[in-house]
Amino acid sequence: MHDLRTMPRRLRGWLVAAAALVAIGVLPLGAPSPTGAQNGTPSADASPVAGETIGLTRAAPAAIGQETIGGGYGVTVLEVRTEPSEPPIENAELVLVRVRARNTTDNDAPIQIGPGNFGMTSTGYRLDPAQPGPGPAPMLDGQLFANGETEGWLVLFGLKGETDRELVVLPGAGTDSALVRYLALEDGASIGPAFEASAAGPNATPSAVGLTQNAPVPVDQVGCNANFGFSVDQLIGGEEATALLKGATKFNPDPLPANRHAVVLLSVFYIGDDEGPVTVDPTDFSLIGNGNIRYVQAALVPPAPALGYRLYRGGAVGGWLAFEIQINDTDLSLVYDPADGNEAEVRYLALPIPDPATTTPGAAETETAAENLTPAGTPVAVSVPGAPGIALDLVLSACGRGPRVTSAP
Question: Tell me: domain 63-184, CATH 1.20.120.330, correct?
């Protein structure tokens, strides 16, 4: 042990001051030095916090009352209520979820937490987005600083009959799957795969039908590529299409004198190899006819439900697309051409007759189209998915995928 009398005066002063602080308990004897975990960066030997290992998959979500942590968000489901939607929406119901949320980081910048960071999934294999409201007070929406905590309600819409509902936490932009977390909204919720891997293995060779405009997928057949199955369920054109668009919103304009409206009801199934969710983007679809003009989505609000959703593997959604095309353009095909430019994914799907240029749909066809609207053709302010027009089993068979998992709906 060193003799204080032989030490430099300044060093003796430091040691005496430190000894005094230890004696009065200000500086604990053997206190650890600051680590990265205290300033926002985890230390190399830090053990995972319990919540970081909970709710990582849809098969094993966090239970009601149990916290899951990911991407700086700590979330706990406290209460779940199911109520009829107001106004009533056919086959849909309101799911109200009260949650506790906290910022688990030590960073100076706050995190945004609100409806945009949450969704809901179920045996429908979709990602239903949380709605901005209205809902019970207080709604969950705001900013949380380091270690801040709040409680509030989320408003979601789901389809009746679907089970194993789970809340999906989407930190930040919600695009990093490693940060996504799942919380059960009912006891025992667990979502397994919708269908088994094909005997042909991952990336099974997709159907070669529908690769060109001159040889589109025939009417009443399923179109397939490596990621999606497509079914054109209905085409309505002319005055009937305009009437449907006016029913969606009075602000939809009339077509130009040399043009007409055409609306297409399409079912899309995600059958790719990744679990997802992947986005069904309506802007990836266009129309083409014998005039060789590519008609993109017009500045029109489609009838509800409009096509566009995020799907997990095995999920499906049905919805409308709206176009304005030239009157004399016939032999129309719907084109799927993804924005990423992957030409192998492009598919052409023949549209059902009667062609909107020459005839109008019969009463039965018009009635069927009306059934896909909300009551009285009123627009829906919330995002409610449309049911697909055909069963997943038919799509899996046509696209060489499956078989269906027995426990899946």
Answer: no
pLDDT at 328 over 80: yes
Q: What integer pLDDT is reported at residue 55 of this predicted model?
A: 95
pLDDT value of position 311: 94
**Does the pLDDT at position 52 exceed 60?**
yes
Domain residue ranges in the chain: 1-28, 63-184, 223-398
Average pLDDT, the chain: 80
Residue 39, pLDDT > 90, answer: no
Q: Does domain 223-398 have CATH number 2.60.40.1240?
A: yes
Domains 63-184 and 223-398 share a fold: yes
- The residue ranking higher by pLDDT, 12 or 171, is 171
- pLDDT (0 to 100) of residue 384: 62
The pLDDT value recorded for residue 407 is 55
The pLDDT confidence band at residue 392, using thresholds 50, 70 and 90, is confident
HEC secondary structure over the chain: CCCHHHCCHHHHHHHHHHHHHHHHCCCCCCCCCCCHHHCCCCCCCCCCCHHHHCCCCCCCCECCCCCEEECCEEEEEEEEEEEECCCCCCCEEEEEEEEEEEECCCCCCCEEECHHHEEEECCCCEEEECECCCCCCCECCEEECCCCEEEEEEEEEEECCCCCCEEEECCCCCCCCCCCEEEECCCCCCCCCCECCCCCCCCCCCCCCCCECCECECCCCCEECCCEEEEEEEEEEHHHHHHHHHHHCCCCCCCCCCEEEEEEEEEEEECCCCCCCEEECHHHEEEECCCCCEECCCCCCCCCCECCEEECCCCEEEEEEEEEEECCCCCCEEEECCCCCCHHHCEEEECCCCCCCCCCCCHHHHHHHHHCCCHHHCCCCCCCCECCCCCHHHHHHHCCCCCECCCCC
